[in-house]
Design a protein that fits this description.
The chain has 217 residues and is mainly α. It has one domain. It has 8 helices and 6 strands. The chain has a two-stranded antiparallel ribbon. A two-stranded antiparallel sheet has the order 3-4. Strands 5-6 form a two-stranded antiparallel ribbon. Helix 1 runs parallel beside helix 6 and helix 4 packs antiparallel against helix 5.
């Protein structure tokens, strides 16, 4: 799952005291941002194994600090504390922390068994990456259903152009992820590309959110 992780961020962003949409987009992918950062020094690890799943060739065999449930809860707590410090709003901190944890829960549906509870066996994952006719419509439904909810529960200060641009950007990066060329072997280009993509999407979300406010706020 890629852009589907942003669905909880879009829903939480409709709350009057929520953190900004850009912050919530960071929260939605914080687990993968951490994973990409830890890949670079080799603290966590992956390899390319063509055919390991029907949808992507990544063998995510060592992710104890980011893709364990315990790890996700710790990342969520840390990020929530940062949001609390920055905003002085308890509701914003709780919402952001919940968005961080949602990443692990959504991954549970799509990953093959490579997630853990605390870094060791058992390994968990329901494997929807092996069922693209289920996973792809589900991801589209989650993301654009949440985007529609966000559009209806917020109001733009001027036009909805920024929201349309964000929607097109989300569709574009997901299409590249699904149908674009895959790296034949692992290299640092993979985490670098991940970090760049998350930065662009978070910046676009911040730009979009700056032009909108909750309808009941």
């Amino acid at each position: 799952m890629f852009i589907g992780h942003f669905a909880p961020a879009l829903i939480v962003a409709t709350r009057p005291k929520a953190a900004g949409l850009g912050t919530l987009f960071v929260a939605a992918q914080l687990i993968d941002i951490g994973f990409a950062a830890l890949l670079i020094p080799g603290i966590e690890a992956m390899r390319i194994v063509p055919g390991i799943t029907a949808m992507n060739p990544m063998d995510l065999y060592q992710m104890p600090y980011t893709h364990s449930l315990l790890g996700a809860l710790l990342w969520a707590a840390g990020f929530g504390l940062l949001v609390q410090f920055a905003t002085k709003r308890r509701e914003a901190a709780i919402g952001a922390a919940l968005v961080v944890v949602s990443h692990w829960l959504l991954d549970l549906f799509v990953h093959i068994p490579d997630l853990t509870l605390s870094g060791g066996p058992p390994k968990l994952g329901l494997g929807l990456w092996n069922h693209p006719l289920v996973e792809m419509p589900l991801e589209i439904l989650l993301t654009f259903g949440a985007l529609l909810y966000y559009a209806r529960r917020t109001r733009a200060h001027s036009s909805n152009l920024r929201l349309w641009i964000l929607a097109v950007l989300l569709a574009l990066v997901q299409a590249i992820d699904w149908f674009g060329p895959k790296e034949p072997v692992y290299s640092l280009a993979i985490p670098a590309t991940m970090l760049a993509a998350y930065a662009v999407l978070a910046a676009a979300a911040a730009w979009t959110g700056a032009n909108r406010r909750p309808a009941d706020g």
